[in-house]
Specification:
The complex is a heterodimer of chains A (449) and B (460).
Chain A lengths: L7 H11 L4 E18 L2 E19 L2 E8 L3 H15 L18 H22 L7 E17 L3 E18 L2 E9 L3 H16 L4 E2 L4 E7 L1 H13 L29 E3 L22 E5 L2 E2 L6 H4 L7 E2 L8 E2 L3 E4 L6 H8 L2 E12 L5 E13 L2 E6 L2 E6 H6 L1 E5 L4 E2 L5 E4 L2 E4 L1 E4 L2 E10 L3
Parallel strand pairs in A: 7-17, 8-15, 14-23
Antiparallel strand pairs in A: 1-2, 1-4, 2-3, 4-5, 5-6, 8-24, 9-10, 9-14, 10-11, 12-13, 15-16, 16-17, 16-18, 18-24, 19-24, 20-23, 21-22
Helix pairs in contact in A: 1-2, 3-4
Chain B lengths: L2 H5 L7 H15 L7 E17 L2 E18 L2 E7 L7 H8 L33 H18 L4 E19 L4 E19 L2 E11 L7 H17 L1 E2 L3 E7 L1 H8 L12 H8 L13 E3 L22 E5 L2 E2 L6 H7 L7 E2 L8 E2 L3 E4 L7 H6 L3 E8 L4 E3 L4 E12 L2 E14 H7 L2 E2 L4 E5 L2 E5 L2 E8 L1
Parallel strand pairs in B: 7-18, 8-15, 14-21
Antiparallel strand pairs in B: 1-2, 1-4, 2-3, 4-5, 5-6, 8-22, 9-10, 9-14, 10-11, 12-13, 15-17, 16-17, 17-18, 19-22, 20-21
Helix pairs in contact in B: 4-5
Classes of the chains: A alpha+beta (449), B alpha+beta (460).
């Protein structure tokens, strides 16, 4: 996985020779290994391994972008994409045959030993989570994904680093209901499996549930739920693509106070304890932490080279080598406050406390967003009471931010339920860490009962 | 079968073109060891995407090639996939995974079916996508949207993708086949500006070829999707005759597809039908899966295991009839495979999925006839959110927009029409179908339905 830049000098020279006056661009190389298991409440099922590599050149000229991509992450694939690009742009760079590349026969034995260890950890995590599987039916796919990327520009070759994450998606069913489950962690080794086991055990816990209330409510969002709220309601609204066409309701009010003083929201690619971390983005730009909201005021936008040229703040991200980068979040981090969970329940009085959100979406034009709530409790007289069944929580971004209680939780915990973010049809890993917050006036409406 | 028997002598071919035969030879050798069968698969694909937004135009061209090996032994399966550069290690990798996989009855490499045509030619690169056709689609959609939205709806972002792929497969049980398929899609985010605000919506259409994308219908849907929520009044509550547009019905009924994936949901189907004594749905409802169904986005000749595909009737006149199967599920059920092993990508093993899963419109009447039967009702025309369907709990909920219907005529625009309740009750309450079968992308393939009439459904 670490040989993506073995021909760095040659590759930079070739990229420089391909780009013409008025053009900017770079090459992305990616190699990805995925080991997947199917799993049920009885343990592991089938296991699959896949390795794929790809190379793509992106060439920008004025308002146009050309991407040419081919299988393979070695010198020959680089030459193929440059030939493909030259054919499209009318150029004909002189491409000598590459030096024979190092044999790519993988270090199979080391990998198999590692697979064995991972399978053992996963098996232990499942048996710990489902120690009493009576009445429970589980269907999961668990993946360990390792990705290495490098970007080659006309000036330098930059290793974007190697990331590894553990993902799990599927359903847990008990008589009378099925709930979706998603999880991801960028923690290393046994820590990731322990976190998965804890999340599965919590999701599998039988609950007696009441129907959810309907209508406007005051809602305490736990750190896990809060991370999804900020991601949908603020993060996506401040991604720069589309701003020239009017942008989102938040992008239209940069400089305005939209939330109570003290609210700070940053996108932090350097938080390597969170799944969206990277050092350089997929365009080779050094990733910057970007303040989106500071002291309640909308400050900035996340940008890539297409939206900001050389001023990109390093948020051009691509799901894989086949796609052109777009402006995307990395890890959305909200600074904690000083309130305890009890303080927030006290301030809520009557309403709901939301523990887990399985999905969300936002419409940048109207500012409306919704969250699918999987786990929540009624709050009565400032105490968390009975569980309620799945429901949809919706709101308007500007109204929700202005309805935020100025107090917020004293811990910004990583949102493990914040999994893969899909924008357009492009899915990539993101992270978030946020404290509990109290949002007034969100609207609850029942999902299937 | 030997490698030479699958594709003839491969000497003299470039290294990448010899890989398939080399893999097959290496996998076949395993038959002498702890492997009882093997399958080798190759895919070559080319895709071209044209995207436009306020920031300009993007052209993305991607060509890829991948190999996959499945080894079988005593119900266990080892699967490994890679691009050409790491393919020589695939058999060894799959063999390493084989003992860690749990055994499942029926797992085996595919054999040729009786009368099945056999033939495995070397896999040539797929033809280049038709860029001019893709560009025409962009223009046509803009024009159709301007017309459908009367100038108040604009495209914020649009991507047209056209692609071709070629696949081949060989198994040690004697299957040897190669085939090609095409695909096209149009995805657009549109913005509508109405008296009560701005809405955006994302619409998608897929087809087996660019010229089969229903541009005019997609444009009308996009316009309704962003204009109705800003123009309609809140839907009334109470019991109403419900007309469900094919677009809404397809998304809703498409969620039933997983019930028919092999034997995975037998217990649930048994519970819903009291062991087959009760009907699954109203007698007017026949559910089928068929590649090449008229208007369906999937038009393939073989599935991901190389099995020839055909039409499978899953629910006939309201009663359960058959299941979608791959080789393993068919072996467990003792029936021929239905050809529904889908490879979403060459990096994943085949799994049971749909081609064009749809409500058979045979016996349906024109949608205008259905409208004429409604004296006091609601027409649910567009979905505003992804429908929420819980098959386990037998409940569904879909938020839609549309029109009120009085004496057989559409009257006021409505937004926020919530369809919810017991799914089994909804299925058994359908009293009539339209003859206007239409498909949308869903369930990993295509899902389709004509207009449905459900009398006296309770709106919350």
């Amino acid at each position: 996985m670490d040989d993506l830049l073995e021909d760095a000098e040659d590759a930079v020279r070739l990229v420089r020779g391909t780009l013409r006056r008025g053009e900017t661009g770079e090459v992305l190389r990616e190699r990805r290994r995925t080991l997947s298991w199917t799993a049920t409440e009885a343990g592991l099922g089938s296991v699959h391994a896949a390795t794929e590599g790809g190379t793509a050149i992106r060439i920008r000229r004025s308002r146009e972008l050309l991407l040419v991509a081919r299988s393979g992450a070695g010198p020959e694939a680089l030459r193929e994409v440059l030939r493909g690009a030259a054919r499209r742009t009318g150029g004909s760079p002189f491409l000598k045959a590459p030096r024979p590349s190092r044999a790519e026969e993988s270090s199979a034995r080391g990998e198999e030993a590692r697979d064995e260890e991972t399978a053992a950890l996963l098996s232990a995590a499942l048996s710990h989570a489902f120690h009493d599987p009576r009445g429970l039916s589980v269907s999961l796919v668990v993946r360990r994904v390792s990705t290495a990327r490098a970007v080659i520009s006309s000036r330098a070759a930059v290793p974007c680093g190697m990331s590894e994450r553990l993902e799990a998606t599927g359903t847990l069913s008990r008589p009378g209901g099925r709930r979706p489950f998603s999880f991801q962690s960028s923690r290393r080794g046994a820590d990731a499996f322990e976190a998965l086991s804890a999340a599965l055990a919590e999701a599998a816990r039988p609950r007696t549930v009441l129907p959810p209330p309907s209508g406007p409510l005051d809602v305490v969002l736990s750190p896990a739920a809060s991370a999804v709220f900020w991601h949908e309601a603020v993060g996506h609204m401040l991604e720069a693509d589309g701003v020239s066409g009017g942008g989102s309701v938040l992008a239209r009010v940069v400089g305005a106070a939209v939330a109570p003083p003290g609210i700070d929201v940053w996108d932090e690619p350097s938080r390597d304890d969170l799944p969206g971390a990277y050092a350089y983005d997929d365009e080779g730009t050094l990733a910057e932490a970007v303040p989106l909201v500071e002291d309640g005021v909308v400050r900035g936008l996340l940008t890539d080279r297409r939206s900001a040229g050389a001023e990109s703040n390093g948020h051009g991200r691509a799901a894989d080598w086949r796609e052109a980068p777009r402006t995307r979040m990395s890890n959305l981090v909200v600074r904690p406050g000083a309130a305890t969970a009890d303080d927030l329940l006290e301030r809520c009085g009557e309403g709901l406390v939301v523990h887990a959100v399985s999905a969300g979406a936002a419409d940048p034009e109207s500012g409306r967003f919704y969250l699918v709530v999987e786990e929540a409790q009624l709050v009565r007289r400032s105490r968390a009471g009975p569980n309620v069944s799945r429901f949809v929580l919706s709101g308007d971004v500007l109204a929700a931010l202005s309805g935020l209680d100025p107090e917020r939780g004293d811990t910004a915990a990583p949102g493990t339920g914040l999994s893969i973010c899909v924008k357009g049809s492009s899915a990539l890993a993101v992270g978030g860490a946020a404290p509990s917050v109290l949002v007034r006036g969100l609207v609850a409406r029942g999902a299937p009962q | 079968m030997t490698a030479a028997a699958t594709s003839g002598s491969s000497t003299g071919l470039p290294r990448e073109d010899r890989l398939f035969d080399e893999l097959f030879a290496a996998a076949s050798e395993g038959e002498r060891g702890p492997v009882s069968g093997a399958e080798v698969y190759e895919r070559r694909g080319s895709v071209l995407s044209l995207s436009e937004d306020e920031d300009g135009l993007r052209v993305e061209e991607s060509i890829e090639r991948g190999f996959a090996v499945r080894l079988f032994h005593s119900g266990r399966v080892g699967f490994a996939a890679s691009g050409p550069s790491e393919a020589p290690g695939l058999v060894r990798r799959a063999r390493g995974l084989l003992p860690r996989s749990r055994a499942r009855r029926g797992a085996r490499p595919a054999s040729p079916l009786a009368g099945e045509p056999q033939g495995l030619s070397p896999l040539p690169p797929p033809p280049g996508p038709d860029e001019a056709r893709a560009d025409d689609l962009r223009t046509a959609f803009r024009r159709a949207l301007a017309e459908a939205g009367h100038g108040t709806v604009v495209v914020r972002e649009m991507t047209v993708t056209v692609g071709q792929r070629r696949e081949r497969i060989a198994t040690t049980s004697g299957r040897a086949a190669s085939w090609g398929t095409g695909a096209a899609s149009l995805v657009a985010t549109v913005v509508g500006r109405g008296p009560t605000g701005r809405f955006s919506a994302r619409v998608l259409a897929t087809a087996s070829a660019p010229e089969r994308i229903p541009i005019a219908r997609l444009a009308r849907l996009a316009a309704d999707r962003v204009l109705l929520p800003t123009q309609g009044r809140q839907a009334p509550s109470g019991r109403f005759d419900l007309l469900v547009d094919p677009h809404v019905a397809a998304h809703l009924l498409g969620r039933l597809a997983s019930l028919f994936f092999g034997d995975s949901e037998e217990a649930l189907l048994d519970a819903r039908t009291r062991g087959g004594r009760d009907p699954f749905a109203a007698t007017v409802l026949t559910l089928a899966d068929a590649p090449g169904a008229p208007g369906g986005p999937v038009d393939t000749a073989r599935d991901g295991e190389g099995t020839p595909q055909g039409r499978t009737v899953l629910v006939a006149d309201g009663r359960l009839a058959a299941r979608l199967t791959d080789v393993a599920a068919a072996a467990r059920a003792g029936v021929p495979p239905s050809g529904n092993a889908v490879r979403r990508s060459w990096t994943e093993p085949p799994a049971i999925g749909v081609t064009n899963f749809h409500v058979d419109p045979a016996g349906g009447v024109s949608p205008l006839d259905l409208l004429g039967r409604v004296s006091r009702g609601v027409y649910a025309a567009v979905l505003l959110e992804r429908p929420d369907v819980d098959l386990q709990a037998d409940r569904f909920r879909a938020v839609t927009a549309g029109w009120a219907v009085e004496r057989g005529r559409a009257s006021a625009k409505l937004s926020g029409i919530v369809l919810e309740g017991r799914l089994s009750e909804f299925l058994r309450s359908i009293s009539a179908l339209g003859d206007d079968l239409k498909f949308v992308a869903g369930a990993g393939g295509g899902v389709g339905s004509p207009t449905l009439l459900v009398p006296r459904w309770k709106l919350p």
